[in-house]
Amino acid sequence: MAEQQQAPPPTPPGQSPDDRLDKLTFWSRFAAAVAVLAAIAAVIAIVAAIRADDNETTSANDAAAQLSALRTDVDALKKSVQSTTEASTQATDEIKSLRDRVAKAERTSSKLETDVKQNTDDIASLETEVQDLTDRVDQLQKAQEKDASGGK
Predict the structure, then answer these.
(1) 10 touches 52 (CB < 8 A)
(2) Is the pTM for the entire model greater than 0.70?
(3) Which residues, other chains included, contact 25 with Cβ-Cβ below 8 Å and sequence gap of 6+?
(4) Are 20 and 11 a contacting pair, CB within 8 Å?
(5) b/e map 23-58, b = 16+ CB within 10 Å
C-alpha cells in the first residue's frame, strides 16, 4: 500500500523552506535548553531546601517525608528532561526528513525543467520540419497543376 503523505503547509511569501526548517530547529533546541535550565533550577531549589532543612530541627518523620517528596520531584524532573530530550531528538529527525524531502523535490523540479526545455526544443524542431514538409507539398501541388495544364 502506498503511504499517504500529508502536504506541508504553504510557505509564507518571502520565506524559504530552509528558513522554516532553521526556525523549527532553533525552537526545538531552545525548548530543550529551557527544560534543562528548569531541571537545574529545580535541583538548586531542592539542594537549598535540604540545606535549609538541615538547619532546622525537625522530627525524623518530617525529614523523611520531605526527602521522599523531594526525591519524587527529582524523579519527575528527570522524566520531564528525558521527555523533552526525546521530543528534541524527534524534531531533529523530522527536520532531517523534511530537508531530504525538500532536496528530492528540488532535484525532481530541476529534472522537470530540463525535460520541459527538451520538449520545447523538440516541438520547435517538429514545427520546422512540418513547415518544410508543407512547403514541399505546396511545391509539388504547383508542379502537378503546371503539368496538368500542359506546362503553362
Answers:
(1) no
(2) no
(3) 91, 92, 95
(4) yes
(5) eebeebeeebeebeeebeebeeebeeeeeeeeeeee
